[in-house]
Design goal:
The protein is an alpha+beta fold. The chain has one domain: Roll (Secreted effector protein ssei fold). It is 42% helix and 15% strand. A four-stranded antiparallel sheet has the order 1-2-3-4. It is globular. The C terminus is likely disordered.
Length: 130
Amino acid sequence: MRIEDLTNIKKLDIEKEIIEAIQDTKDELPNLTTDTTCMIYSDYLSRNLTKRHVINRIVSTSDYDLPYYHQFNIVPDNDKLYLIDLTFKQFQVSKLNELLQKGYMLVNTDTYGEYLDIVGNVNKEKEKQH
């Protein structure tokens, strides 16, 4: 038996479960703005994913020693990794369109790094402008 087989014992369609957990979270927080509410959204989403037996983790940019604090969720699925951030649009960038539209996306090393550069260095960019 491979360890990967133990992470999704029920053989769930992880992407389908993510979509439904996102919808549950949005239904629970219908009037909450996405500006500076990453901790609330990531916590609710984590609980909704856990209810669906989806392994997930709340990650913080402080885990990477980045100057701007932001939280988001990751979900491993065998050799894939989903990044979920329901507040990403607050950063007002035109990159990572799938994340902007769906609230989640599959990431690789490059897209994960690009995402962290955006969300973890917001204040750094603002300081450069002044």
